Amino acid sequence: MKPKIAKKGPYVVDLEEGKNYHWCACGESKNQPFCDGSHKGGVFTPLAFKPDKGGTHYLCGCKHSENKPFCDGSHNKI
Ligand code: FES
Q1: SS3 content of the chain, % helix, strand, coil (to 5)
Q2: In Å, how far are 18, 41, 51, 59, 71 from 65, measured between CA atoms?
Q3: 3-class DSSP state for residue 74?
């Protein structure tokens, strides 16, 4: 089963160092790029991560990155 493509490109977000975030892996969240619980009942679960650095990050919007939760340019291939 494939995730829904929430956006064909990254979400540019300002994150805090060491804070716990939950990246939406299913693509169904209304609060992209973060999980809002919409995955419930499906096969996907959110990815918890803590940024090493604070500041601007590019989080995957197409949900096909090989380097989740970060954008790796995979949106250009789908
Ligand atoms: S809403 Fe997509 S993983 Fe939770």
Answers
A1: 5, 25, 70
A2: 22, 23, 17, 9, 6
A3: helix
Please tell me the distance between residue 46's alpha carbon and the centre of ligand 1 in angstroms.
5
Distance 40 CA to ligand 1 centre (A): 8
- Residue 29 Cβ < 6 Å to ligand 1: yes
- CA separation for the pair 18, 49 (Å, rounded): 9
Query: Does the beta carbon of 28 sit less than 6 angstroms from any atom of ligand 1?
Result: yes
From the CA of 29, give the closest atom in ligand 1: 1
pLDDT at position 17, please? 98
Q: How far apart are CA 66 and CA 3, in angstroms?
A: 13
Taking only the tens place, the pLDDT of each residue in 19-58 is 999 999 999 999 999 999 999 999 999 999 999 999 999 9
- Ligand 1 centre and the CA of 54: distance in Å? 23
